[in-house]
Amino acid sequence: MANKVKLNVDRTVEMLSAISGQYVWSVRSGEYGVLRLDFGKPHLEVRGPYPSAGKPERVALALQRRLVIPTGEWHLFIEASLWSIEAGGFRCDRTDEKFDERAFDQLNGQKLVSAVYAPESSGWLFTFDLSGTLFIRERRLQEEEDTQWVLFFAKGGCLFCEGGNQIFLERDADA
Amino acid sequence: MRLDDLEARFAARRAQGLRRNLEITDEGFLLGAGTLLAGLALDGEEARILTVLSAAFACAVSPQILDVLGKAIALWKGGEKFRAQLHLTYARLPPLTEEQAFALCAADELLKEGMTPRALMKGLGLDPTALDGLQKYNPDQPRVPAGSGRASGRWGSGGGASGAAPTLIGHGQALSDISVEPDGPAVQVAQSGEPPPIGFAPDGTPIVPVASADDPQGLKAAAAAAQAAGLTTKEEKRAFHNEISGRGITDFQELVEIAKSVKKTP
């Protein structure tokens, strides 16, 4: 189980400032257009294998393997939100027909300078030291409870955004 | 009918709660303040359904939503109640606001009082040609599945007199993605040369590769699978996404199986 506490924008900006000065790395897109970015020192996250006997073939293939994923001290997972990256003269937007991974490549290795809320566009703007930017703005898919983005902490817990730019801090109750 | 009467009827219904999203029940499709959008049979109700939805959202609604409702009915009657409810997400109707719920209720009452769908559409300043399209609508005609990222099953308008293109909503089309051709007859854009399906939606609808790398429909299916499997924490959901990433799994039951497996054991 987990508990969550609602945060205001100021408090959120303050928490995000913890990753200022950190390198961003492993910028990549995932299933359904989600975006993932890691910050800070890497560690290996190991999951699985899971019991797969009797499962359909594709399910078994996914479960029977062991996943070893290099993950940063902070892992930003952009789920429902629209996102766009501009870096090194390249641009990649979630709504693009095909993602231009050169933008990911150019953003990789840049240091985060600031993460601020832009009220005029209801979004979050991350700026980096080599002029890279990441902009995230809300997209309602179905419910207000849609997770827009999550910043996971290697030490446990996360900061996450739901519809209406509501930000929460989630901690494992047993942590 | 007097506005006071409408407001009184709405208030009475509203007291029972507000459904912001379309829900299928044994009674039929419920939305808003207990408005019964349709029973579990659509025959003869098509124009009314489109009209009340158009009234609620203040824009013409695509007749293709009827296809979504029809499939949901088939799933419900086949005992696949969860899948029927999930299938309604393909209608892509935005969550209803209080004002929209009132408009829905009012339109429903006016039609019950004997007003024709066409008259109501005109009275609301909406283009009634969507109802013309209804007569030409063939639910058996193949279309690009909802959520494919393309303008699946776009319908044209025979209007255009005003020059302003009303917005169509429904069936996998985001509000901002949908437009109506300003001229020409109501036709469904032919879909040809489609790539082969990469998987299947919960109802068995083939899913073709998306024109956009973004796939909100797939994201919603994954979220529904996570919910069905009882994933509660963001960490569990992240682990689930890690497991499905790059696997191309689009079958809902398979997604649920994987989600169950990654759920933290207490």
Strand content of chain B: 5-15%
Q: How confident is the prediction overall: mean pLDDT of chain A?
A: 90
State the share of residues found in helices of chain B, binned by percent: 40-55%
Strand count, sense and closure of the main sheet of chain A? 7 strands, antiparallel
- H/E series of chain B: HEEEHHHHHHEEHHH
Question: What coarse outline of chain B follows from CA principal-axis ratios?
Answer: elongated
Q: Approximately how much helix is present in the residues of chain A? A: 10-25%
Based on helices, strands and strand pairing, what is the structural class of chain A? mainly beta
Rg of chain B computed from alpha carbons, rounded to a whole number of angstroms? 19 Å
Number of domains of chain B: 2
Largest sheet of chain B: 3 strands, antiparallel
Q: What distinguishing features does this structure have?
A:
heterodimer, A: 175 residues, mainly beta, 3 helices, B: 266 residues, mainly alpha, 2 domains, 5 strands, 41% helix
Describe the structure.
The complex is a heterodimer of chains A (175) and B (266). With 175 residues, chain A is mostly beta strands. Chain A has one domain. Helix content of chain A is 13%, strand content 45%. Chain A has 3 helices and 14 strands. In chain A, the strands form 3 sheets. Chain A has a 7-stranded antiparallel beta sheet with strand order 1-14-13-12-6-3-2. In chain A, strands 8-7-11-10-9 form a 5-stranded antiparallel beta sheet, covered by helices on one side. The longest helix of chain A is centred in the N-terminal third of the chain and has 8 residues. Chain A is globular and about 50 Å long. Chain A starts with a strand and ends with a strand. With 266 residues, chain B is mainly α. Chain B is elongated and about 55 Å long. The longest helix of chain B is centred in the middle third of the chain and has 15 residues. Helices cover 41% and strands 7% of the residues of chain B. Chain B contains 10 helices and 5 strands, in the order αβββααααααββααα. Chain B has 2 domains: 136 residues; 64 residues, no CATH class. A 3-stranded antiparallel beta sheet of chain B has the order 1-2-3. Chain B has a two-stranded antiparallel sheet with strand order 4-5. Chains A and B meet through helix 2 and strand 12 of A and helix 8, helix 9 and helix 10 of B.
